[in-house]
Structures are given as C-alpha cells and as structure tokens.
Design goal:
Largest sheet of chain A: 8 strands, parallel
Largest interface: A-B, 58 and 58 residues
Order of helices and strands of chain A: EHHHEHHEHEHEHHEHHEHEHHH
Oligomer: homodimer
Distance between the termini of chain A: 9 Å
Helix content of chain A: 40-55%
Radius of gyration of chain A: 19 Å
Number of helices of chain A: 15
Shape of chain A: globular
Chain lengths: 342, 342
Amino acid sequence: MIIDCHGHYTTAPKALEDWRSAQIAGIADASKRLPPSQLKISDDELRESIEGNQLRQMKKRGIDLTIFSPRASFMAHHIGDYAVSAEWASICNELCYRVSTLFPDNFIGAAMLPQSPGVDPKTCIAELDKCVEDYGFVGINLNPDPSGGHWTSPPLTDRYWYPIYERMVALDIPAMVHVSTSCNPCFHTTGAHYINADTTAFMQLIEGDLFKDFPTLRFIIPHGGGAAPYHWGRYRGLAQALKKPPLREHLLNNVFFDTCVYHQPGIDLLMKVVPTRNILFASEMIGAVRGVDPETGHNFDDTRRYVEATDKLTAEGRRDVFEGNARRVFPRLDKALKARGR
Amino acid sequence: MIIDCHGHYTTAPKALEDWRSAQIAGIADASKRLPPSQLKISDDELRESIEGNQLRQMKKRGIDLTIFSPRASFMAHHIGDYAVSAEWASICNELCYRVSTLFPDNFIGAAMLPQSPGVDPKTCIAELDKCVEDYGFVGINLNPDPSGGHWTSPPLTDRYWYPIYERMVALDIPAMVHVSTSCNPCFHTTGAHYINADTTAFMQLIEGDLFKDFPTLRFIIPHGGGAAPYHWGRYRGLAQALKKPPLREHLLNNVFFDTCVYHQPGIDLLMKVVPTRNILFASEMIGAVRGVDPETGHNFDDTRRYVEATDKLTAEGRRDVFEGNARRVFPRLDKALKARGR
C-alpha cells in the first residue's frame, strides 16, 4: 500500500474559516466571539470537502492512506494567547478525527498542538493525549516557531521542549516539525518560512545531543528536509567540525525526511543522499503548490510519479518509502492498520 | 582561467580581531575605544596570512583568482550603530584592498557595506563608491538582514533598498546577497542562517518585480542558492501561482548562484536544474566547512573537484562556470583582467 505521511485538511468547509475569523475578532472585541458550539459542520459537508478533493486525488494517484492533520498555515499559533490556540486546536483536531471516522480506510489523524509563543509546551499535553488516546491519532505536528517567523522560542534541543518529548516517547508517536504561517514580511510562508524551518530544525539537531536523552524520539522533517539533503556535504562537515558523530549515527536513527519535493531531480538527490530507511512518502497534496507543471503536464505535488520514476531506489527500497518506513516511524499507524487486517 | 567568485578574508591577522573587540567594548565604555589608526598590520603580516592559507589552497586547487571580501560572519552589522559599522567596514575593506595590491594576479576586492539595522541604506553609498572607484573592487556583499537573524529589514524588493540598487546599476557591479553572524540562538550561523537567507532572498525576488525597475541589476545568491535548486519545482510552481512569468524570464537574467555546495550530488543537481549561464564557480574556501570529507579524502570545500567531475556540464559550459559567467556578471572584473592582458 501507499501511505502519504503528510496531508493537511486544507479544504475544510468555509464555516471553519468564518468561525476562526470571529475568534480572532473576539480577541480585541469579546462581543464578536463565537463559542465552539456555534460552529456547525455536518458529516455531509465533511464528506463533500474530502471526496472532491484529497480523496479524488488519492484515488487518481493510487495513494491508499493519508496521515491527516489540520491545515498547517492556519494553525497560526502566534494569534492570541494559549486559550485561543487551545480552542482552535481542539476544533481543528476534532474535524480531522471526524474525517478519519468517515473515511477510516483513507485517513488517520495527526494532531496540531495548542502552542502559543512563550507558553510552556506542557500546556499542550492534554490536547495531545486526547488526540492519541481518544481519536486514535498516530502523530503530532510540532511548531518550532509559534511566533510565526520571529523565532522567539528556544531551539528544539532545549529542555523547554522536553515535556512534549517525554509524552511522545511514552505514547510512541513521532512529530513532524512543521511551522505555520509567517507574519514576518521577509518570509513567504510556503516558499521561505517552511523550508527555512526544516533547515533550521535539522541544524539545531546537529548542534545538540537530544537523542542521547531520548533515544527513541522521532522527528519527520518535511518538505524533503528543507535544504539539508542538497547541502548534505555541508552538514556532514559541520557535524564533524562540531565534534559530533557522523550524521547516520548522530541523527539518522531519529530523524526522517518526507518526499514533498516537487520535481524529479530533487527527489533523485534525496534518494541518492539520504538512506532509504529515513525517507517517508508524502505529497502535502492540495497544499503549497497546487498547479500543473508545464514541463511534465502533471501536478507539481504528484510526488508518487517522481518516487516511481527515480532510478535511485530498489524495488524493496521503494516499498519501504511508500509503506514500510511509515509503519516503523508511526507504530500506532501500523497497529491500526493491522487491526483492520492491512 | 578559474575564478572563485566567493572568498572572504577569514585568516586576517589577529590584530584585526583585537581591534574589533576593543571597538565593541568601546560601545559601552568609550575609554576602551581604539582609533582605527591604532590598528597596525604590516604588508608582511598580510602576505603571511594569505600565502599560507588561501593562496596555498588556490595554487593546490588550480584557482587563479578569488573575488575577495571581508569575513562574512565578522561583518556583524547588528553590533553598535552606523558609526560602528562604518568604521569597521572601512577597515575591513581596506585590508582586502591591500591584499589585492599585494597579490594583484590572485585577488580582487568585493566590499562589505556599513549596514546597520534600521539605518537608511543610502548611508552605505560613500563606502561603496570608495571601494569601487578608489580600490577597484568589482562587487559588494549585501546583507538582507543586518539584525543578525531577527529579520527586521524589509524584503529586498522593497524601495527601502533602492538607493543601493541605483548605485549598483550606475557602477555596473553585482551584489552577493550574504548575511552575517546570527545572534538568534535558533539559527546556527553557517548551517541555518546563511542557507535560510539564500532561500529567503530567492523567494523575495520571486514575490516581487524588482527587475522591472532595475533590468540590469544582478544578484549572486551564494551557497548554491540555499534550498532553491533542490526545490526548483516548488519555486516554479509558486511563481506560477503568484502569476509571475516562468523563473527563467522572471529572475534568471538577474539572479545567479555560486557553487558553494560541498558534495558531488548537490553540484550535480545544481548543474542539472539551473541554466549553466546562471552558475558561477566559488568555494568560500577556508570558510564554513574546513574539514576533510572522510568519504572522499578531500576538503569538503574543494568545489573544483565536483565541478570537474559532474557529467551535467559540457566542456564549454564548464568554462563558463569557471570563468565566462564571472566575467559577464562582474564586468569590472573582466575589464581589470583585460587591462592585465588576461
């Protein structure tokens, strides 16, 4: 089977955005707030938003299952305080959960966290626990920069983040390191901030020794690892200069890259440079880049084509990228699939 | 001949660093300041700092000429105010100029600018003019983030920067877009901030229409263009979504990448994806990554090896990358070389 480890609910019914707008307006003017109970989205509306979009594309592209989380750019952890983020995360996660119950063969959840700049990450644990234990989610998205492009939180290797890591280890779930919208005009959200965050996270992990403290902690760095594979020699050299072990030993038992790289030469490089066991298939489909590539006639984000076409994978390696690695990195996904006889 | 378009004076005599330390101490305590005249570095000291380092490596690697600018990480435009930056830039540029007169066959200068966060870029023009007109420098380094990792300046497409662009066009010199040291603990200087800045600058240029206003303005994005070539499909797709012309038309008459990518697969990707005419040979040698790659037995930053070894270049294309493109992008370099019969 083919598992896409990186999908967001980018096509949620308009009512969600309207509710969020009211919530944001309510920060300055409490009379504009709407209680979460005022957000009404029917199962039919959810079905429609998925069937004509992600599910249609998944069927067309032969993708069986997507690990599905709330829309990344809408997490916008920089807006409001913890209470605002908590209400918003709860609503968004619940919608992904409902999608996973409506389409149990095709979607399984990953949680956004109610992060807020400067707020202790342990405040995220209750939502995280609910999503994993009650909703059956198999992973989380962790935002290394809840300020939205001002980078005011400590590096991911700082003890600041340990409460989340402790819970991740206890629940045996990985985190995708994924920022949200940029409110810094220097950084285009999907063209600069996302990719920079991937590169930044990878370098933070090189600088630290996080996996000595958490040998089983696992991160997926999305968007093909940002700039890391392209500059693999630079990173091997920097690790060496910092007297760290070789990257394979220092990071590659714990750090994985997805395949959200939207052209063949990029995927070829990723597959050549990064060990196959560290690569998980993903498309972030109906996401950052929705158009058709005039050079190929296919969607830029139809990453299955690139993974099928690359000559850098063996048949076995390709199966690992499409399925085996995701089952290993997301053990709760593997368990859920096995429970359904898959 | 082989021209390295990206070299910094990373090996300047220790007296320079000592003077800078006194300058920085003098910001808080004026009694600690030293006038620039107190900095004494002899020609012999300059010769020694170059002959045993950059020049030795250049001879070993067969590099004829390096475009040489002050040490990037030491520019540190975030320290002090404009007066501090002006004094420091003047000293650092003068040293590069002296190196270029001591080794006129091997080094030619590029200027650092006396940028300071929040200060009008037109304050940089006097130093820029002096470097080009009096010192014979052929380019400048432009820091898109003089705050050192807080990204408080407007994007490069903003009119804020136009005074510098107007002068660049008048003098017919290009700028390398190069940040300095990061004082944001999230960003490792050479592993995250440099690469992120490259990616960020490229995306800023996609978002804007700067080259409509300045059709002959030229930027070199160093470190192989950050993440841009690896994510070339993403950037083509984002340009398309933003209703911009194709990248070739939108940017590639004005934007160039260097070859500071420290492994063979990275250089191969760069050469495959980016038109040859947009790639300038460079190594940033004795810079960010100084070690020997245990996988090859050669220095990570010995980029000539990768450019020689790639099968993505024709013989003519290789000559363009090594020489022709630099002569075209740096017309004052071409003129200086021709004046010496080269």
